[in-house]
Amino acid sequence: MLHKRQKMDATVVGMVSTIDEALEAINSLHPDMVIVDYDDERVNRDEFLARFVEGEGRLRVVLLSLREGGDEAIVYDRRTLAASQVDDWMEMWLEPQREGEISEEKYPGKDAKPRRRDSMRHLIVAGLFVVIIMIAGFFFLRNVELLPIAASLQAGSIDSLFALEFAVIVGLFSLIVGLVVYSILFFRRRKEDKADGPHIEGNTSLEVVWTLIPLGFVLFLAYVGGVSLGKTQAADPKPLEVKVIGSQWAWRFEYPRLGIISTELILPIDKQALLEISSTDVIHSFWVPQFRLKQDALPGEGFERELRITPSEIGEYSVVCAELCGRQHYSMAAPVKVMAQPDFDAWVQANTAPVSADPVERGDQISQQFGCRACHSIDGTVVVGPSWKGIFGEQVSLADGTSVLVDEAYIAESIRNPGAKITAGFQNLMPPNIGAQLTDEQINDIIEFIKSLK
Q: What's the CATH number where 323 sits?
C-alpha cells in the first residue's frame, strides 16, 4: 500500500500486537512511521494516541482501515487530522463509497459541505422540536391553575416570582428533554453499527459560556427573590398583633391587645396582621397556602418568629402544619377566616363578653383553646392520650405497674408535670410547659369540666 499509493520506499522494522510491545519497539527500533490497524478491536486508539503520539511528536502515526477489502485502504494521518476527526472522516469516506461515488483522488477534508448541510438540517429540526415542546408547556401553564387563589397582598410578588420560575422550568425542560428525545430518535446506535463512538474533546469557550450564563441567571433570580422577600416583610405601623402557638397537634391564636384566645385565626380584610409564631413542644410550620407565606414555629424561650400578612380576599381558609411533627401531624389544622372590618369588630365584641360563671363551660372552652382536645377525647375514643369521659374517680394503672386514683390532685399534677405519672399504654407526648401557660383558676376549670364527663 505504501509503495502503490504513497509512492515511497518503506522497510518494515517490526510488527507488534500489544501496547507494551509497541512501547518497547518504539524505544528500541526508532521507526519513522507507526501504522495502527483501525479495524483491530483489541487496539485502544485513544490510549495509543495519548501514550505514543502526544508524547512522541516526532513520530508519524497513521490509522489503516481495510474494512472494505481488496487493495483499497483508507488512511488517517495523525499529522493531517486531529484525533477527534477520525470517525467523522471515516464516515465521509465510507458513505459515498457505499453509493459508488468516491473517487481515487478523494481525501479527508476536501468536501465537507454535505456534513455541514446535514448538521444544519439536524439543528433546524431539533430546534423546531424544542419550540413545539415549549409551546405545549406554556399552553399548559396558561390553562392549568398550579396555585390556589391568592388571598393576601404579599401573594402578588410571590406569584410573580413563581411565574418567572415556572417559565424558566418550561424553557429548560423543553431544551433539555427536546434535544435528548431528538437525539434518541435520530442518533441512536443501529443494530448493525458496532463501531466506537466519536472521540470528543472539551471546548473551553463553550464551558466558560455555559458556566457564566447559568451563574448570571441564578444571581438574577436571587436578586428578584430578595426584592420579593423585601415586599413580604414591609411593615405596617399599626398591625393587628396575634400570637400563634403550635402544639401537638393544635393551633392556638391569642390577641393580646384584645384579650381573646381562639382556636380560629380571625383576620380583617386589608389590614396587616403581625403574627408572632412559637411552639410549645416540637418544630411546627405555620402555612396558609392562599397567603403564600410560611414560617416555622420553634420551641423554646426567645425563639418567636414573625410573619406579616395582609389579607386581600374575604373567605374561609385553613392553616396547616408544613413540618412533620408527630403521629397526628396530618390533622394539625385550624380554620382561618378573613372578614370585613364590621364583621371582625362584631366577632371581637362577642368574644370579649363577660366570661361564663359556670366553671364547666369555662373548662370546656379552655380545653379547646389550649389544644387539650387534640389528644384527649370527651366521648370515650382513644386518640393519643386517655379519654376524659368517665375517668374522674376511677382507679387507673400506670406505666410503672402501680395504680392511682384520678382525682383533683392527680389531674392538676398531670397538667403541671406531665411526665410524673404516665397511664399504662400511653406515651408522654404532652407539652412539658403547658402547665406554665395556665393559671390555677384555669386548671381548676378544666378539672370541673372533666368531672362533668360522666
A: 2.60.40.420
Residue 329 lies in domain:
240-351
Is the pLDDT assigned to residue 283 strictly greater than 90? yes
Q: What is the pLDDT of residue 215?
A: 94
Dihedral angle sign, alpha carbons of residues 135, 140, 142, 146: negative
Class of residue 370 by CB neighbours under 10 A (exposed 0-12, middle 13-18, buried 19+): buried
DSSP conformation class of 196: P
Distance CA 122, CA 127 (A): 8
> Measured between alpha carbons, how far is 73 from 71 in angstroms, rounded to an integer?
6
The verdict on residue 224 lying in a domain is yes
Cell of 361: 363551660
Same-domain check for residues 84 and 138: no
Asked if residue 422 belongs to a domain, the reply is: yes
Task: Kindly tell me if the per-residue pLDDT of 191 is higher than 50.
Answer: yes
* Domain stop point among 98, 129, 161: 98
How many domains does the chain divide into?
4
Question: 248-265 pLDDT, tens per residue?
Answer: 888 999 998 888 888 899
Among 374, 418, 411, CA closest to 394 = 411
Mean pLDDT in residue range 408-426:
86
